[in-house]
Specification:
Blueprint lengths: L4 E4 L2 H12 L4 E3 L6 E5 L3 H11 L8 E3 L3 H4 L8 H10 L4 E6 L6 H4 L4 E5 L4 H10 L3 E3 L13 H8 L5 E4 L10 E4 L6 E4 L5 H8 L8 H4 L16 E5 L4 H10 L3 E5 L10 E3 L4 H18 L2 E5 L8 H10 L6
Parallel strand pairs: 1-8, 2-8, 4-6, 5-9, 11-14, 12-13, 12-14
Antiparallel strand pairs: 2-3, 3-7, 4-7, 5-6, 9-10
Helix pairs in contact: 1-6
The structure holds adenosine monophosphate and magnesium ion.
The site of adenosine monophosphate has 16 residues, from strand 6 and strand 10.
Length: about 325
């Protein structure tokens, strides 16, 4: 048990963060996607503390965050031509690439795989932290495992108070959902997790087709939806067609239910949590909406009826939030 310090980012707090990381401790920090829970990627004992703080299954690998492109070479054993293109055109930014790993990266970082996920955040505050601590930092989202990801320092404090020595207090996360994960170790590049960097943007950069196995997740009974993930404390349902009759019936039958949806549905529920007007605002708002809603609702309906590839990232999160329960 720690007495957790929550400090704004300045020279003094960055010095404290640097010392904790050098001593093998875990520090929470802001990025443009979500807040991360970071440790020195080369320090096995420190990395294991992340899994304990989150209650994360040990076979779920972590993303290694770097301050500059040079650090990529200390983590990946093969920086391919495609990786160079991604680094030149899409980094820093909300994209993660999976490459063959260096043997110095501990197994606990990669869940025993011989590949490693690497990301360079664009958020200035994340860059300040990564530059100050000097080491590549492996970090998952700074939430208790299975809970909605944290997009503000208050969300981190809700889940991590007493579990880590330091939370760096930065801005709310601008993007709001985790990075696009792109596997570059196969013949055809593969999107393992959709985010706000889309398939078309990646294809334009690589000059070739990229595979995104989305069809399986678009149906309600996807066998892929096995793990509880991003789940609020209250029972949650999803609607993907915006059918007003179904939505109002649900809300009439469940008097204390909340509605998380685009602004245009505002008038349908008293307990309404807005996702704004488009895919970008939906991503920005989704996790804070889920965390706000769970505090005052005993059931929740998410309506996410936007289509198109920039809506895929939010769809991927909300289908998991509701455990595949679609109305
Ligand atoms: P999180 O830390 O919760 O944002 O999740 C990290 C994501 O990156 C998960 O979806 C992991 O499965 C994925 N990931 C991390 N490392 C690898 C890797 N070496 N190969 C494939 N996926 C990875
Ligand atoms: Mg996570």
């Amino acid at each position: 048990m720690f007495k957790t310090q929550v400090l704004s980012i300045d020279q003094q707090s960055l010095e404290i963060a640097k010392k904790y990381i050098a001593d093998g401790e875990v520090v929470a920090f802001p990025t443009e996607t979500v807040y991360g829970l970071g440790a020195n990627a080369f320090d096995e004992t420190a990395v294991k503390k992340i899994f304990v703080a989150k209650g994360r299954p040990s076979d779920n690998p972590l993303i290694v965050h770097v301050a500059d492109k040079q650090q990529v070479y200390s983590i990946a054993s093969e920086v391919t031509a495609d990786a160079l293109k991604v680094m030149d055109c899409l980094m820093p930014g909300p994209i993660t690439m999976v490459l063959k790993k260096q043997s110095t990266i501990p197994h606990c970082v990669t869940g025993g795989l011989d590949t490693v996920a690497i990301r360079m955040p664009s958020s200035k505050q994340a860059q300040q932290f990564l530059s100050a601590v000097k080491y590549p930092i492996c970090a998952p989202s700074a939430n208790t495992s299975s809970r909605p990801s944290p997009t503000s320092w208050q969300h981190v404090a809700e889940d991590m108070d007493g579990k880590v020595p330091l939370i760096l207090k930065g801005d709310d996360c601008q993007v709001g959902i985790e990075s696009t994960v792109l596997d570059l170790t196969r013949d055809v590049p593969l999107i393992l997790r959709p985010g706000m960097v889309t398939k078309s943007e990646i294809e334009a950069v690589l000059g070739k087709e990229v595979f995104f196995p989305d069809a399986i997740d678009k149906s309600m009974n996807s066998p892929g939806i096995r793990y509880k993930h991003y789940a609020p404390a209250c029972e949650t349902f999803l609607n993907t067609d915006g059918n007003l009759q179904k939505i109002t019936e649900f809300l009439n039958e469940n008097k204390n239910a909340g509605l998380v949806a685009l602004e245009k549905y505002k008038n349908l529920a008293q307990k309404f949590f807005s996702l704004g007007n488009d895919a970008q605002s939906g991503a920005h708002n989704i996790f804070s909406a889920l965390r706000d809603a769970e505090k005052v609702c005993d059931k929740l309906l998410i309506v996410w009826d936007l289509t198109g590839e920039d809506a895929d990232g939010v769809f991927n999160r909300v289908i998991k939030s509701c455990g595949g329960k679609i109305i």
